[in-house]
Structures are given as structure tokens and as C-alpha cells.
Inverse folding.
């Protein structure tokens, strides 16, 4: 019996450790693959007011930069409520990534955050004026805030649309849609147009939030809508670009693209400019939806960044990190594309912003994100600033920025070792 | 796009989205259906692997005996081992090769589910690079992430899926285990570790993984149990109280190994292997 036991223990030592290592490695590999998709880092565009540029950082800060030299005027960490959980989904604070472009009105700047909070700061010094909700959080916010008079409107990932008083953040009304609201609502007179990922465009009364109309189901809508006197224009994930009647929501025309219409459309004279993720930029006649011109950069370049009009030029940001400048009337490039980085692997993400002849782009290069300003007349770079708050104030709650946290892996390994030891004892019994 | 993405991830992602569209926008059911389809397509490989494993288990006692007999003559041991394999009509790599071929497919499916879930805005934008330009595919985006009580991009809030993943994995592992007095102790040790550690680890991972992945694991395990049953019967599960009576009630046919040669040409020794008859040295026969 003793010999049998010794043999078993000997065999166990030979086989168990490599097997244990293999199982632990498999577990860690599964964790690594399984958690990688859950890393929201945001793609906030820039809002410009009084020589100050407001933009969100991937870590979840709101930065106020001097448009002239890029110097930081102030930075505020958007700290969300802490949460439980472990592994991919915690612990610590929810991601505070900023997707929506901040809005500026009077002396306040408003920014939404993926942590489910909307903040209002004093534009001059970054003092927090109010936040919504005052405690806890709503569902993650991808939508940016839209302003009209004293009303501020945004949507959340649970499909709820909120209208708040711009001065104090008091709730005016809410409206529940059928899907997720990731687009920034568009305010136009007495209506607010809300694109929803359930494929419908909702027109709500800006004063009381009542439904005026909603469209038939299209593909998922996450680009912002834009409107002229008669029509509302919206791009869809079903590859179509739609124009709907402003008073009834009935479809007037649609234009098929090659892939998602992810970027928001912009109006220029009698055309609406829409960029597709297959890289094509279309200028469509607003009444019939016929292309006045279209332009496509080199193969393999995708466009998800919303273009911007500056004078006669339309600036378009590509996934190759280049800024393309097109003639607004013909679609022909007016100059060679501006390379925002020579390091390669860069991409322009989030909407472009313009201030006179200067176009600002959010340029991502791996985990490093910059805001870069170019003079479109001369092609010269006037600003380059990495989107990192400095000095970094310590946030009250930690934000989860890595794909998965190492605490969890250590706990997992410890757990496996304990199980292994228990098993060894059990097996060692004759 | 890397070749791995082009030949495996992209087709699987598009199949998932297409199935979701066909199944009325139900992504949970699409995961189950695609798992069944892939299990069916890879069934010949799975059967080959299971049968080769069984054959290997059957000759293990004989192999042990040879190792003991020719302990000091490695060359002779090698010759006799190969002879034994030849007589049993099996290839020693027969259970490894089919498994190695299947692994990339299952990793790709796992990866595809994560990418298609599109939980964060970045994931959804990333989808545009992977989807074919079929309108049926694009119309299904974004996918409905609600399935039963679950939000497929978040962990199961009531912990049913971790239990199902652990239990189904344990059942499958138990069916492959054939421990007994004649069993190789090191093999028994490994089996015991696999029997408990793998289900516990996967249940633990499921606690914090998106529910969509957990559904895939549960479907994968249940299909594995069904396939395993038709090849090996209840296996080690027949020793578990409750299953003991069930296994006994089902005889005949006895739930013994239905060994089919892993190689094309059956050897004379292998011709003896029919339902109810076993290879020499089979543990079950020894026990009887």
C-alpha cells in the first residue's frame, strides 16, 4: 500500500504541475480574449469658444486648452459612481470615456460621459456647477449634449432622452425610445430629432417631450441628424442615407452607400455631405438625393469622422490619419492631403471642428491621442497637444482603462492553486 | 486584414449576423444554431478523435505491461509498442490531430461572438471592417442583445449560466473518465484534475464574461455530451448514483466502447472489436 501510494504521489508530481500550468494559461488566454472588447475610450470632438478648445480625453477628463498654443487652462476628471463586480466588468469606477462633443453656452461647458453622468462646468476655471443625475448614474452616455435656449437634451444607452434646464440641470422631461440613443439629438425650432439604434428617428416636442412622429424602421441610427427647412437627413447602418419629411417623418428619398453611414451629415448650400465607412464622401442634392459629386481616397481608407465645412473647403478625416481637403462645389481635392503623423498607424476619429481657417482633428496613434490643428489655407500645423490632463488630479474613484484587471487574474490563479492543493490531498489518500 | 481574420473570423461573424437576421433578430438563438452547425461540420473530426481516444484507453493496460516487461530495453519497448498499435489498428496521433485541427475553428467562433456583440461603440465601429456588403447582414446591425433574462454583452445577473457551464462541462468530462482499479494512476490523477478544475475554472470565468459567450459554452458542452453518448455511452458517468440505474435500464445495448478503427485499414485484432466485445486489456472487461 505504501509503495502504491508513493508511486501515485510520484506520478502526480510528474503530471500535475504542467497540466496545472496549462489550465492556468488557458484560463488567462480566455480572459485576455474575452475581455478585450470592453474598453471604451471615447472619440469626443472639440468645442471651441473664446479661444478655448474643450475636448474629452480617453481617460475620462475634460480638458480646456488654449487654441493658440495648446496650453492647458484647466482639466477636470469626470468621476463616475463606483461599482462592484470584478474581472472585465470591474472593480472600480465605470469608464468615463467621452464620446459626445461638449457643448458651450454662456459661461458653462457641458460634457457627457460613458459613466452615465452629464456635467456642467464653469468654462473659465472648470468649477463643477452641477451634474445629472445628482447621485448615481443613468445608462452609459455616448450621445453629446445638444442646446437650444435654456434646454439641454441628450440620450443614454438605455434609450432614454433627457431634457434638462441648462442653468441648474433640473429635469424638464424624459422620453423612452425603443433602443439605444448614441447620437446627439438635433434641436430645430420646436422639435428635437433623436436617432435611435432601433432604426427609428423620433421627433419630440422640445418643450414637453411629447412624440410628434417617428419614422418606419430603418437600419440602426447612430449618426446625428441634420435638417433644412423641409427635410431631416440621417445616415444609417443599413448602408442607406435617408431624407424624411420634417412635418410627418415620411421617407422622401434614400441613397445607397457601400457600408455604414457612421459620420454625421453636414449641409452645404443645396447639398448634404455624407461620408461612408467605405471611404466615399457624397454630396447629395437635398431635394432628390442625387449625388452632385462623390470622392474616394485610396483603397482601404475608412471615414467615420464627421467632416467640417470651412469657407469653400470641406475637410475630411480618414482612418489613415490624413486630413483631406476638398472643394465644396466639385469634390476635387484642393491640396495634397495633410499627414497628421509620420509614425503610421494613426487614425482620425471623432468629428472635426473648425474655427475660421483652422481645422481641429482628434488623432489617435495606438493608445496615444492628440488634438491637432491645421490651417487649411497654408497646410501648416498650428497646434498639437496630447490629450492627457496635466497635472493629473487624483480621481476619487479608479477608472478601469485596461482590458482586464490583474487583480482578477491573481485571484484566479490563487483559486486554481487552492483547488489543486485540495485535489492533491484528496488523491493522496489511499 | 490578417489572414486569420479573412478566412475564419470574417466568415463566422457574417454567418452569425446573417443567422440573427434569419432568426428574427434573436442573437442568442443564432449563437446556439451556429454552434450546432459548426459542431455538425466538425463531427467527423470529433468522432475520429473520440474513437482514437477510446482505442488508446483500451490498449493502455497492455502498454503498461509492455513498459514493465521491457523496462531496460528501450528499443524493444518501442518495437513492441508500435506492434501493439498496429495490431489494434490505431495511430498514436489519432486523438491529437483531429483535436488540433478543430481548435482554431472554436477559437475563431469564440472570437467572432465577442466582436459581433458590439458592446462598446468602438466594437460597433470595428464591425464595419468585417461585414460583407450584403444588405441582409447590414440590416441586422446593431444586433438585439436581449435574450431571455440576459443582456448578451453583460454577465448573467442571476448566475444560472455559470452553473450550467460548470455542470455541463463536468458531465462531459465525467463521461470521458474511465477510472477503475486497473486504471493508470497518473491518468486517473489527470482525469480527476480535469474533471473538477476545468468546470470550476470555466464557471468562474463565466461569472464575469458576456452572457453570449456563456451560451456558446453551454451549447458546445451539451452537443459534446450528446456526441459522446453515442460514441462511448455514459462512460464514467455510469458510476454516478442516479446514472447507474439509468445506464443499467438502457442495456442492451451496453454502454461499452463502440470502438471503430482510427485508421482506414482495420487490423485483424481490430476486427474483434464490435459492440459488446472489447479490445484485449480493456479496463471495463478487466473489471468484469
Amino acid at each position: 500500500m505504501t509503495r502504491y501510494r508513493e508511486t501515485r504521489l510520484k506520478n502526480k508530481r510528474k503530471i500535475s504541475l504542467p497540466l496545472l500550468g496549462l489550465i492556468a494559461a488557458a484560463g488567462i488566454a480566455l480572459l485576455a480574449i474575452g475581455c478585450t472588447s470592453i474598453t471604451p475610450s471615447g472619440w469626443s470632438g472639440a468645442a471651441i469658444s473664446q479661444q478655448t478648445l474643450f475636448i474629452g480625453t480617453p481617460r475620462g477628463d475634460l480638458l480646456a486648452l488654449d487654441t493658440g498654443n495648446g496650453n492647458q487652462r484647466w482639466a477636470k476628471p469626470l468621476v463616475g459612481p463606483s461599482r462592484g463586480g470584478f474581472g472585465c466588468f470591474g472593480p472600480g469606477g465605470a469608464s468615463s470615456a467621452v464620446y459626445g462633443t461638449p457643448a458651450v453656452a454662456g459661461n458653462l461647458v457641458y460634457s457627457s460621459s460613458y459613466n452615465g453622468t452629464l456635467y456642467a462646468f464653469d468654462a473659465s476655471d472648470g468649477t463643477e456647477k452641477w451634474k445629472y443625475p445628482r447621485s448615481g448614474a443613468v445608462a452609459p452616455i455616448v450621445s453629446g449634449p445638444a442646446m437650444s435656449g435654456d434646454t439641454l437634451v441628450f440620450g443614454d444607452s438605455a434609450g432614454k432622452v433627457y431634457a434638462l434646464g441648462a442653468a441648474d440641470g433640473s429635469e424638464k422631461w424624459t422620453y423612452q425610445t425603443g433602443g439605444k440613443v448614441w447620437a446627439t439629438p438635433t434641436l430645430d425650432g420646436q422639435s428635437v430629432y433623436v436617432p435611435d439604434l432601433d432604426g427609428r428617428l423620433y421627433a419630440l416636442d422640445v418643450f414637453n417631450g411629447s412624440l410628434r412622429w417617428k419614422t418606419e424602421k430603418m437600419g440602426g441610427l447612430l449618426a446625428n441628424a441634420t435638417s433644412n427647412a423641409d427635410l431631416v437627413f440621417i445616415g444609417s447602418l443599413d448602408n442607406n442615407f435617408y431624407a424624411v419629411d420634417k412635418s410627418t417623418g415620411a421617407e422622401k428619398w434614400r441613397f445607397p452607400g457601400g457600408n455604414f453611414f457612421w459620420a454625421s451629415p453636414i449641409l452645404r448650400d443645396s447639398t448634404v455631405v455624407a461620408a461612408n465607412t467605405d471611404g466615399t464622401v457624397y454630396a447629395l442634392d437635398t431635394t432628390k438625393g442625387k449625388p452632385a459629386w462623390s470622392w474616394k481616397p485610396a483603397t482601404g481608407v475608412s471615414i467615420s469622422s464627421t467632416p467640417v465645412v470651412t469657407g469653400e473647403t470641406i475637410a475630411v478625416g480618414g482612418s489613415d490619419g490624413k486630413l483631406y481637403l476638398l472643394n465644396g462645389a466639385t469634390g476635387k481635392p484642393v491640396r495634397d492631403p495633410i499627414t497628421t503623423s509620420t509614425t503610421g498607424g494613426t487614425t482620425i476619429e471623432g468629428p472635426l471642428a473648425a474655427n475660421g481657417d483652422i481645422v481641429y482633428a482628434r488623432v489617435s496613434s495606438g493608445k496615444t491621442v492628440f488634438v491637432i490643428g491645421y490651417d487649411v489655407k497654408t497646410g501648416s500645423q498650428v497646434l498639437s497637444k496630447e490629450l492627457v490632463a496635466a497635472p493629473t488630479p487624483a480621481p476619487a474613484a479608479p477608472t478601469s482603462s485596461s482590458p482586464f484587471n490583474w487583480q482578477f487574474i491573481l485571484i484566479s490563479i490563487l483559486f486554481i492553486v487552492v483547488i489543486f492543493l485540495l485535489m492533491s490531498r484528496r488523491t493522496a489518500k489511499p | 486584414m490578417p489572414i486569420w481574420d479573412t478566412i475564419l473570423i470574417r466568415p463566422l461573424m457574417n454567418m452569425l449576423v446573417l443567422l440573427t437576421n434569419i432568426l428574427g433578430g434573436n442573437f442568442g438563438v443564432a449563437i446556439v444554431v451556429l454552434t450546432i452547425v459548426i459542431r455538425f461540420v466538425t463531427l467527423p473530426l470529433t468522432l475520429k478523435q473520440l474513437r482514437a481516444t477510446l482505442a488508446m484507453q483500451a490498449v493502455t493496460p497492455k502498454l503498461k505491461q509492455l513498459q514493465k516487461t521491457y523496462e531496460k530495453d528501450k528499443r524493444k519497448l518501442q518495437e513492441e509498442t508500435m506492434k501493439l498499435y498496429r495490431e489494434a489498428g490505431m495511430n498514436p496521433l489519432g486523438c491529437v490531430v483531429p483535436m488540433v485541427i478543430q481548435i482554431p475553428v472554436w477559437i475563431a467562433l469564440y472570437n467572432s461572438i465577442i466582436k459581433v456583440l458590439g458592446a462598446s461603440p468602438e466594437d460597433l465601429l470595428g464591425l464595419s471592417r468585417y461585414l460583407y456588403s450584403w444588405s441582409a447582414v447590414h440590416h441586422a446591425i446593431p444586433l438585439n442583445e436581449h435574450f431571455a433574462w440576459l443582456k448578451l454583452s453583460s454577465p448573467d445577473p442571476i448566475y444560472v449560466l455559470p452553473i450550467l457551464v460548470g455542470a455541463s462541462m463536468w458531465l462531459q468530462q465525467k463521461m470521458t473518465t474511465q477510472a477503475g482499479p486497473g486504471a493508470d494512476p497518473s491518468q486517473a490523477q489527470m482525469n480527476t484534475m480535469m474533471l473538477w478544475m476545468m468546470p470550476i475554472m470555466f464557471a468562474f470565468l463565466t461569472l464575469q464574461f458576456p452572457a453570449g459567450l456563456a451560451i456558446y459554452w453551454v451549447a458546445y458542452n451539451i452537443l459534446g455530451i450528446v456526441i459522446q453518448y453515442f460514441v462511448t455511452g455514459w462512460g464514467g458517468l455510469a458510476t454516478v448514483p442516479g446514472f447507474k440505474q439509468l445506464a443499467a435500464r438502457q442495456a442492451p445495448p451496453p454502454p461499452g466502447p463502440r470502438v471503430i478503427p482510427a485508421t482506414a485499414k482495420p487490423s485483424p485484432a481490430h476486427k474483434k472489436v464490435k459492440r459488446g466485445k472489447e479490445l484485449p486489456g480493456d479496463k471495463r472487461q478487466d473489471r468484469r
Observations:
- DSSP finds 13 helices and two strands in chain B.
- Residues 115 and 126 of chain B are 8 Å apart (CA to CA).
- Chain B touches chain A through 43 residues (CB under 8 Å).
- Residues 254-288 of chain B have pLDDT under 50 and may be disordered.
